[in-house]
């Protein structure tokens, strides 16, 4: 074991020495080019963020109808849409977490829509369970979060857990371990009486172009 650890340490040391040698080999012009490239990337990112905010990113909002849904899809590369009903306590749990994630992930638009006012969309996307999150990228549904099944099948899941689940569909930028869900600890589930169905469609990549 000690020999293996020593070999790993030596490998890491060689890699570090190699990177330092590359930095030492750079002249003033190379360093300036790297600095300028980084500056341009930061400016582009700031410009992109302003465009996102102008399109409603950074807030969790409700849209009025199905026509607006297609308008939002055309303006935003990444979209999380919560199909809800007013009488569902679990929808309010999603609301709480999505408000937080909308502010954190300005690269993605977070919206909600009353499922009863969207018969065409719910039929087209085969939504049978409330609540359901439709995860959309480039006008195509990449995935669905159906109820709380993928969140430990519990009502007291964390915002981090929902963030991780959404990130698996690549509609938000995520710096954590995409293969391992965040630790939920040993909590007891809070059961809700008025509960909808559990399972839903597995259909993905449904074309959402208007």
Automatic annotation (TrEMBL):
Highest taxon, organism lineage: Eukaryota
Region listing for Disordered, in residue ranges: 180-210
Record Pfam families: Thioredoxin
InterPro entries: Thioredoxin-like_sf, Thioredoxin_domain
Biased composition (Basic residues): 188-199
Domain Thioredoxin: 67-148
CDD domains (alphabetical): Phd_like_TxnDC9
Listed Basic and acidic residues bias regions: 200-210
Name under which the protein is recorded: Thioredoxin domain-containing protein 9
Species this protein is from: Pieris macdunnoughi
